[in-house]
Amino acid sequence: MTLVLVGMSVTDVDRRLELLAAASDRSATVAFLQMGDPSLSLELTRLADLGATDITLAGINLGPLAPAHSWLRRIAAHWWRERAGTKPVLDVATRLATSLDNLDDVLADRKPVTGTEPGLTSAAWEDVTAHQRQVLVCRGPRCTAQGGEETMRALILEMLEAGLGDNDVLVTHTGCQFPCNQAPVVSIQPDDVWYGDVDPDTARSIVHEHLVAGTTVESHRLPR
Fold first, then answer.
1. Of 48, 85, 184, 201, which has the fewest CB atoms closer than 10 Å, so is most exposed?
2. What pLDDT, in 10s, does the model give residues 72-96?
């Protein structure tokens, strides 16, 4: 059996070294569902091309903002259906590991991919959301090193508390937004407002003052 640990969220990309260490202990490899390389699809192709006949996937969620476990099966099944020629047996752990310490327990319960799983499209994902603002949270190297993960977590959790969904505000991870000395950086469009040094408390203020009340947080606004 070939084991692949699959980081589900940007948090898991940030913690790549922990995943690599856990993989090394188990003679496994690492892939990412989003925002990280190698992608799950590319890693499955690499392993299959090398002759792997039995591959097990374990989804890793080390933060609170990962997509649902169902997305791991969807992506894996899409790859399996599209794979030309000989296809490996592909098993997926039935739940995500929320800690690397409970990985063995998670791997004890697995189900094979059959190819009948839901695809990557749905009527619910056809249209652009009705959001009036888009919040771009920098996850470049400096912003990540200086707390971008905590900023994102605070921002999204506070938005949920305030009742703001995708049809109000669309939150997007980005690469470097360039004013790196001001990390962590958050920008809001189409307002063309940029914030710097956005720690979790500032992120919560941005939600209530800017996104709810429509007033900029001048203490952290960057000049344009």
1. 85
2. 999 999 999 999 988 999 999 999 9
Which tokens go with 129? 């959301």
Specify whether the CB–CB gap between 88 and 50 falls below 8 A: no
Q: Compute the distance between CA of residue 83 and CA of residue 99 in angstroms, rounded to an integer.
A: 31
37/125 Cα distance (integer angstroms): 25
Q: For residues 110 and 223, give the distance between their C-alpha atoms in angstroms, rounded to a whole number.
A: 52
pTM of structure: 0.90
CB of 77 closer than 8 Å to CB of 113: yes
Give the separation between CA 42 and CA 19, rounded to whole angstroms: 18
**156-173 b/e (C-beta count within 10 Å ≥ 16 → b):** bbbbeeeebeeebbbbeb
